Amino acid sequence: MTDFEVNPFAESTSLDEDYEGISDDQEYRPQSERIPSFAHDFSGFCCQIGSVIRTGEENILITNAQKTNEGGGSNYITYTIRFNDQEVKRRYSEFESLRNSLTRLYPTAIIPPIPEKHSITDYATMQSKAKEDVVIIEKRKRMLLTFLVRIAKHPKLSNSHIFHRFLESGVSWNEVLNSPPLSTLPKNILQVSPTNLPSQSSSNSTSPVSTTNPLLPTPNPSQLLRNPDQRFLDSELFTNKFANHMSQNLEKTNRRLLKRLSDLSNDYAELGAVYNGFSLVEPGGLSNAIEKVGQAVDSSFMAIRNLTTALESEFSEPLQEYSQFAQMIKQVLRYRHMKHLQLELTEETLERQKAAHESLIRSEEEARRLEAALSRSTIEENSLSRSRASLDSEDGNSHIHEGGENGREEDGYHQNGDLSNSATLNHHSKKRSSSKLFSVLSHTIHGIMDVDPEATRRSSIGKTADSIIQLEEALETSKQDLKNISVSIQEDLDRFQRQKVRDIRDMLIAYAKIQIKWCQKNLNSWEEARAEIEKMQT
After folding, report:
1. Of 194, 477, 211, the residue nearest 347 (C-alpha)
2. Beta partners for residue 81, in sequence order
3. pLDDT of amino acid 320
4. How far, in Å, CA of 292 to CA of 299, rounded?
5. Eight-state DSSP code of residue 222
6. Cβ atoms of residues 162 and 176 within 8 Å
7. What is the pTM assigned to this prediction?
8. Cis omega before residue 181 (within 30°)?
9. Lowest-pLDDT range, 114-128, 198-212, 481-495?
10. Fewest beta carbons within 10 Å, which of 97, 278, 350, 519?
11. Using an 8 Å Cβ cutoff, are 30 and 155 in contact?
């Protein structure tokens, strides 16, 4: 029990903290006073039901559950909800859709659970009568009422006009589901900032939800965080322990106990009949004593049955509810985990885009250097061509005007000069040929890759720069979202912790009172039997 009682949340109230020190105003103060980015502040009230709930004068009851066959379809059970002087009938599937809608509208809130659907075993054993079982229906009535009351007391959920419409008489629930804000909700709430969700409080909310950001990645739930928040890691660890403790230990043991009490009740019923039959056989005072023992056994049978019923409603159902609460907390923490992952993935994407932008810039600079080199090569080629033409012209003139005896010497001299000039020209010719080949190959490769590579590079640089700007904006939004989400979730975890302290305290007190009442009933019956037995004369 030591681990179970350790405070799981950084700023929450521990289980052993004095409950009496928590005021209702502090526990249920409006969320709008604490988290401006998540609040849906409005002047006045969105509707009459909203004004009644905000003043704390609501009186919600589920007065009846009856089989209905509207429209000639299959039978189903409708639950009559009375809100002050209004009445409205809702079926189980509508309660379920209300809860699902609130989960999407308030992804950072711990939405109260509703009773689970019938199991396959129930349908297999009871077949078509499973929906009409009185015990199941009564249990659903109690748990659905608890669901509505918890929403009405929640500082954020109580402001939801969707909830108000659910309680309003004469309102078609299908119409509510197909109207704003529910009709404007994005399919993936991770692609939109929680602050951009449509107003859940306005009675005339018709504006569509803000467009989603396609640059925000959708993370894998199994992916680990690089820089997790230790506070929420501790919350996840405690929630897992709490869920396991509730479902695997408390719930499992309590179900086994109730089954044994039910079996014991049946045994007492059979034993009482045996004693009563035995009293008819024996004469006189012995008969009266045996009959009184039989009556005490019958009383024990009834007391155990009442004990089982009381434990089911006052202890087992709250245990089941808190087991479901643990799963809801996991869902809320998972949402924050996904938004944190989204932030880290956005940072990684931004880093890759910046690296790609730098690479494109370097490629552009390299291309410019190559173009400059090609331009210089072309200029040198033209210069060499002019030099060769000039040399050829001078050689021709010298051969025409010079002769005589010195002709052979001059010829030898010019031959040597021609050889030297020829070698020089051959060297420049090879260089010029290599330059031409490089230029041709370069243009050929660029032609194969792209018709206008320069324009393509500049376009890629521009698109990457725009993407970086958008990613930087998305990153700032994600950071602010994560901050607001963390604050909002921590607020609701603190509120839930206070609620849990109160509820577990009430559950334990109820458990003790039920046991005392059962023991007192048994004691009275067996004291009467003892008095009758003592009258016997031996």
Report:
1. 477
2. 62, 88
3. 94
4. 10
5. T
6. yes
7. 0.74
8. yes
9. 198-212
10. 519
11. yes
